[in-house]
Amino acid sequence: MGTVTAGRQQPGAPGTPRNPAAWRNWAGNVTAAPARVVAPASVGEVQEAVRRAAEDGLRVKAVGTGHSFTAAAATDGVLLRPQALAGILGTDRAAGTVTVAAGTALKDLNRALAAEGLSLANMGDIMEQTVSGATSTGTHGTGRDSASIAAQIRGLELVTADGRLLACSEKEHPDVFAAARIGLGALGIVTAITFAVEPLFFLTAREEPMRFDRVTAEFEEHFAENEHFEFYWFPHTGNCNTKRNNRSQGPAAPPGPVSAWIEDELLSNGVFQAVNSLGRAVPAAIPGIARVASRALSARTYTDIPYRVFTSPRRVRFVEMEYALAREHAVEALRELKAMVDRSRLRISFPVEVRTAPADDITLSTASGRDTAYIAVHMYKGTPYQAYFTAAERIFTAYGGRPHWGKVHTRDARYFAEAYPRFGEFTALRDRLDPDRLFGNDYLRRVLGD
To answer: Which end of the chain is more exposed for a tag (fewer CB within 10 A), N or C?
Structure first.
């Protein structure tokens, strides 16, 4: 068996011998050394890998592209890489659905749907993840009426601990469907997902700098007036950048190639990378850098198809914590966060992101049963983040916040039993589907209990 490092969150020691089976997430804060790695090319091969793992006494986990900051997918047993399970399996235009293999990258799905004149209703701001990885951890964008990617699921297929293939939807095994849309990898291996889709449409994006006091005072107004509203606050300043996305008749009017390169590549990635590297080397320079950086992005308006508006390239690596709060508490919590940063010696080079989602009915969704606002804090990769995240988490938990399942947090099953009214439904279903914890790991033991 491989060295047991599954679930260990660490920066990685220089000079450590490389294990060819070793796995590291995108941010580099989680590593795993599985006993073996399997890349199934069919559902049958997934079922065989699950059966063999059970026979060998090994736990099994599927891993996507590693964009989670937690050890949700880490294992010391069998690591499944589902990327060969990719592509659209079927489209039902009458029903408004598309079925896609679980290892399909969101970017490939978005492009394939657009080529067919179709689109998801909403999506997050990056599209590198696999569809199963993104939905299993509750990846979301921002929306007044349209919710997370998982909330757009209409059916899914799951290989359970006994090797069976279970199809579930609102009509078929509805109890499994209610939980498995955001299943944390705890209920089985997702092999296919059916999403609701709609005819391709246009979004007009309006990006505009705005002062912190104004955007927080007008938060509910901006939320009510826009289909998709979000903003970023730059710590050590009173400056924010807002983004409003609303449907329009078109035609497409994307940013020009030069301005797009300046905004999305040079400023948001190239210069941002450089200033974060400077800030890591000279933390005292960060407040001054923040004041300059927060004024660098200018107002702009453009129109394009959805995925080109919702998503952006994210090449600067970071570590992130995000909490979901009842929307009515978001502004108060954010003001507390700003006051905490202002009076501390912390030096924060990454902006704080604020988004929203309507209530949904998924058992362990961060928006389950309540209208939600998300506050996400970030630190540049390689920068100590514990003091900042601990202080932020203290604020968020005081409001009954629910941490994103794929982002850094310290909560455990006792906390979640209080935060989620239907937590017991999920754990009871897990006991039924995976009584021997074939799909377990250290992270799931902490957040779900044992």
So the answer is: C
Pairwise CA distance, residues 99 & 243, whole Å = 31
Compute how many other C-beta atoms are within 10 angstroms of the C-beta atom of residue 418: 9
Q: What is the dihedral of CA 157, 159, 164, 167, to 10 degrees?
A: -10
Please tell me the chain's helix, strand, coil percentages from 3-state DSSP, rounded to the nearest 5: 35, 25, 40
Q: Do 85 and 103 touch, CB atoms closer than 8 A?
A: yes
Say if strands 36-38 and 78-80 run parallel, antiparallel, or are unpaired: parallel
What are the φ and ψ backbone dihedral angles of 55, each rounded to 5 degrees? -65, -35
d(CA 277, CA 299): 26
pLDDT tens for 2-20 read: 333 333 333 333 343 345 5
Q: How far apart are CA 213 and CA 263, in angstroms?
A: 25
Q: What are phi and psi of 47, to 5 degrees?
A: -60, -40
Q: What is the pTM of this model?
A: 0.92
Q: What is the DSSP string of 341-387?
A: HHHS-----S-EEEEEE--B--TT-TTBTS-EEEEEEEEETTS--HH
> HSE of 420 in the Cβ direction (CA atoms, 13 Å)?
30
pLDDT digit string, tens, across residues 24-57:
999 999 999 999 999 999 999 999 999 999 999 9
The structure tokens 């080079």 sit at: 349
